[in-house]
Amino acid sequence: MLARLLKREYGGEFSVILVDDHSQDSTAQRAHQAIRELDAESRTNIRSAAPLPAGWTGKVWALNEGVSQAASAAPTYFWFTDADIVHAPDTLQRLVVRADRHHLDLASLMVLLQAKTFPERALIPAFLFFFLKLYPPRWIANPRARAAGAAGGCILLRSEALQRSGGLAAIRHEVIDDCALARAVKRSNGRLWMGLITRASVSLRTYTTFREIRDLIARTAFTQLRYSPLLLLGTLAAMFLTYLAPVTLLFAHHSAPGSRAACCAICAVASSLWSSTRTTENSPA
């Protein structure tokens, strides 16, 4: 992935900072090797993160370490991306063009998730569907709407907007850091944009068991519900009425108008699911 980043098709100046959060997967060693092979020492820096302070989540602290390292260069934008995501060569160029053209403070892009194993095929589309129900891209882009969200695997953030929103310290305790960052930027009158799934940027992370995906949902959806059993029960009840009640109504012994209404509801849900989870190419530019 680092080699792909260093081969960006980008007209401006950029440098890469890789933050080593003391992982045990030899990421730093492989990164050093890639940098030497590409002769890219002058524009690449590998920073070993300081010990995690109390009150900070690991990823937000790693981002803060990278921002601190880059601060002396006074960059116009920060591009936050995960180490297990492979981007097309022109992804950065397109994001910057869109941000400049539309005066965006934060632009993010939903990358293509793996759907090869049975657990991935069974749950990842539904996970994406409900994520987009919670964070509709049109509402995110609407400055008058309260909705604010972002896709943490690929975020372009204007440095002025980060300072205006209180820096990463303002979201230091957040588990869903991407959406928390988007809320902070929007509260400070920043403009947001979140692009739908693109095949140009692909996550290499795989989920081989249902438990792994369950943990992913627990970290995100249940956090969004503020760990409240009452909100969880209310959400489950609403989902039952929306997605299961029409099926029950269809096969119940009711009048023809009731059956037609159930059919319409089922078609609407199916259409919404298909349009939300299909891997549509949505260019950032």
Summarize the structure.
With 285 residues, the protein is α/β, with parallel strands linked by helices.
Write up what this structure looks like:
The protein is an alpha/beta fold and 285 residues long. It has two domains: 224 residues, Spore Coat Polysaccharide Biosynthesis Protein SpsA, Chain A (Alpha-Beta Complex); 45 residues, no CATH class. The protein contains eleven helices and seven strands. It has a five-stranded mixed beta sheet with strand order 3-6-5-7-4, sandwiched between helices. Helix 5 packs parallel to helix 9. It is globular, with a radius of gyration of 21 Å.
Number of helices: 11
Instruction: Specify the CATH class of the largest domain.
Output: Alpha Beta
The percentage helix is 40-55%
Question: Which radius of gyration do the C-alpha atoms yield?
Answer: 21 Å
Gross geometry: globular
What is CATH's topology name of the largest domain? Spore Coat Polysaccharide Biosynthesis Protein SpsA, Chain A
How many strand segments? 7
Task: Spell out the CATH superfamily of the largest domain.
Answer: Spore Coat Polysaccharide Biosynthesis Protein SpsA, Chain A
Assembly state here?
single chain
Order of helices and strands: HEHEHEEHEHHEHHEHHH
User: Could you report the average pLDDT, rounded to the nearest whole number?
Assistant: 82
β-sheet strand percentage: 5-15%
Alpha-beta classification = alpha/beta
**Largest sheet: spatial strand order:** 3-6-5-7-4
The CATH architecture of the largest domain can be named as: Alpha-Beta Complex
Largest sheet: 5 strands, mixed
First-last Cα distance? 22 Å
What count of structural domains?
2
Low-confidence stretches: 276-284
